[in-house]
Amino acid sequence: MTLLQALRAMPHRRKFEGKSIERLNKAVHAVSQAFPDFNKATPVTLENVKAKIAAALRDWNWESVTVGEIGLLASAAFGGDEPLDPHLFSFVQREVEATTNPVLLSAAAEGYVAGWTQGGTLTAWLAGIIQQRSEHLSQRWQTVFLSIPQALDAHKAPEEIAERMVAEPDPYRWLAGIGIGSPHSGKLMTELHKAWLRALPEIRTGQQVDQVFRWILPDGRARASDEMAAGAIEKLLTPWLHKMPEQQYRKALLERITNAYGNLRNQRPEFWALVSAPCRGVLVRWLAGASMDALLSVITRSTANHMWQPRHDFWKGLFNRGLVDEAWVALSPAAIDVAQDMFAKSGKSVSALAGKQTSKARKDTCLLVMRVGRHIVVEGSHDYRVHVFVDSDSRAPKLYQAAYDAEALILGIGHPDTRIHDPYGHWMKWVEERVVR
Length: 437
What we know:
The protein is of the alpha/beta class.
């Protein structure tokens, strides 16, 4: 069979229906409305447009140059994305200054938001152009500047918009609703984010936490940059630098932060480096308490060991007094299976929450490794003795390791840095005398 015969033998296709293209056009329009600031131009496209307009300006031949191309270049140049030589930049400015074309004026508005600089000459000039030609702006940009005329203040726009933004339960949806296509993008939005965080009162309620997370993690839209999110996390944690929130609030906030940005003890170091050390310390302390509670839950389900409860109560008591700075657990193989089952519904990996205890001689032992002041404390389940090391001791284990050998950490019986868990609780007094000074 020839190719022509094969094509003729193919099933007859129904003729194209005009209403299909109408549906496609509606879909395209819907996408454009949802993402009005999406930049479809690649760097190569911008370079080509720049070269094309430069040649047209040199030869004074404008037949193939479109208004859209000039607008594309103006938006990139005003936003700081595309450096232009003074001659070409002057041309773009003159075109925008003289025009009533909505395409060029939209480009000016986009460049204004993208490149806003406090008191900047270009910023002030663009604000003036937008005000003078406001009736010729596209409908979207008219809505933006009618809704937040403060945006055209070349000196105080972020602070003035932030005052309104504080009152919005969902600030992202509010800005998107008035026509800001990408509320996290551009220098004006970056400065607005900072001003909003400064304007917010201290965050101490779940409702306030919801407001912050709706901004940095908007439903169905791109999340805020790591730099913006780090500032928001600091705002959430700053009230608790020197005090402990109520347990339910602490647990809920800790879970939201770690679900969104990972466990700072062993995940996403590039993000957590952006958060200040004092605020990271708050999370480390909260995670210490969570590690203790998780260990109790896992040991309770994985063993019939009744001795752990008083140990847990003692260490959690020190934690509640603010004495336990960090904590990490290492689970036995059996306990890891139990933990994996417990955390399966949450989607969390056990490796992100605990290390593995690898000793074959003590295959059922789970460990709790803590930093208490200048001491590293190793506690264990079953008949494992409590060990207290000075943190400079080379024998002291490091926190947040993937694996620990419980047997290798054991000091000899009678060693002054270790103590059995006697039934009378003398070991607790021994620990306090050593670490609580």
